[in-house]
Amino acid sequence: MINLEVTKKILAQNGHYKLPSKLEVFKPCLNKTQTFPLYSSKVSAGFPSPADDNLEKTLDLNSYLIKRPAATFFVRVNGDSMINAGINDNDILVVDRSIKPSHGKIIIAVLDGQMTVKRLYKSSGRIMLMPENDLYKPIEIQDHMNMEIWGVVTSSVHFL
């Protein structure tokens, strides 16, 4: 069973915690800013266009991905239950605890001591955690289950 208060304290002290479910939780490191060039022209995903050297501005990935630093953490994905949502094994998810989890949002939840990422469905008083892979079954939350929603996924860092 994951003790959420202990996990939060460890995260506050170390910025990193490896959960028994093999998921790793990280806090953002915001004390260092590094910007990268951002060009004003968009890259073509269809027909190629001539190269453009117009530098629009710079981009700080922290400010781009993290809207509320105190409420944000990262988690690395283990598994393929969300591949149809574009979330793959080993991706890093940006999670915001300040966003209200609502129907249709992708959330991080702890269910009976195991952390999971699923799409939240609420209908007729029922709560379901829906995978985005047909090989997995939805999880209907029953009264005897212990579930806590940790936050809403806002972005996925995906490596090619």
Describe this structure in words.
- The chain is mainly beta and 160 residues long.
- It has one domain: Umud Fragment, subunit A (Ribbon).
- The chain contains 2 helices and 11 strands; from the N terminus they run H-E-E-E-E-H-E-E-E-E-E-E-E.
- The protein has helices spanning 4-14, 61-65, and strands at 16-18, 24-26, 35-39, 55-60, 72-76, 92-96, 106-111, 114-123, 126-130, 139-140, 147-157.
- The strands form 2 sheets. A 9-stranded antiparallel sheet has the order 1-2-5-6-11-7-8-9-10, with helices on one face.
What's the overall geometry? globular
- CATH class label: Mainly Beta
Compute the number of helices. 2
Helix-strand pattern, N to C? HEEEEHEEEEEEE
- How large is the radius of gyration? 18 Å
In total, the number of domains comes to 1
Classify the secondary structure makeup into a structural class.
mainly beta
The appropriate CATH architecture is Ribbon
Helix percentage: 10-25%
- Distance between the ends: 34 Å
Mean pLDDT: 80
Give the strand tally.
11
Describe the sheet with the most strands. Answer: 9 strands, antiparallel
CATH H-level name... which superfamily? Umud Fragment, subunit A
Poorly predicted tracts of residues: none
